[in-house]
Amino acid sequence: MGQLLEVLKYPDPNLRRGGEAVTEFDETLAETAADMLHTMYNYRGVGLAAPQVGLHINLLVLNQEGDADQPEEELVMVNPEVISRKTLEFGEEGCLSFPGIYAEVERHKSVVVKYQDLTGAELTAKFEDFQARIVLHEIDHLQGALFVDRVSAAERIRVRGKLFELEREFQGKA
Questions:
Q1: pTM for this model (two decimals)
Q2: Sequential pLDDT tens for the chain (174 residues)
Q3: β-pairing, 47-49 with 74-94?
Q4: Residues taking part in catalysis
Q5: 144: exposed, middle or buried (C-beta count within 10 Å: 0-12, 13-18, 19+)?
Q6: Domains of the chain
Q7: Quick count: other Cβ atoms within 10 Å of Cβ 88?
Q8: What whole-number distance in Å separates Cα of residue 45 and Cα of residue 66?
Q9: For residue 47, what are the β-bridge partners?
Q10: Contacts of residue 12, Cβ cutoff 8 Å, sequence gap at least 6
């Protein structure tokens, strides 16, 4: 089933560290991916990147349905790299590292991504619409970028109060 991992919350500095290339394709990597999927479902997410659980590797998991009972929708991507993008559009996004915060973010509607699976095999796939948004959001995490970095000034002002709450909560924990 997988072990439940702690999801780091903004403004934890580890969220800005991004990930490093995965070179070992072993049982540990497969277990990490399983733990990440379990954690994603537990928090009712549709995607999760390794830096969000304190792991600085280029690994992400997603299921656009957000439903553990639909494992055919699961995707594990290792060392993903966007090789082409088309057509920008705005859409609402949330993030497990920003609980309760949703904002309009401009992203590409269609992307082609080169990545590896858990065996190290290289794959290339095209993602569109909601799935493209998830993939791009999670790849941002692997590069140390957060979805609030991509919101308009007006959106940032709109969510500022909730961001301050997360910052105060984090300072209280530190």
A1: 0.95
A2: 689 999 999 999 999 999 999 999 999 999 999 999 999 999 999 999 999 999 999 999 999 999 999 999 999 999 999 999 999 999 999 999 999 999 999 999 999 999 999 999 999 999 999 999 999 999 999 999 999 999 999 999 999 999 999 999 999 876
A3: unpaired
A4: 138
A5: middle
A6: 13-173 (3.90.45.10)
A7: 9
A8: 6
A9: 62
A10: 97, 170
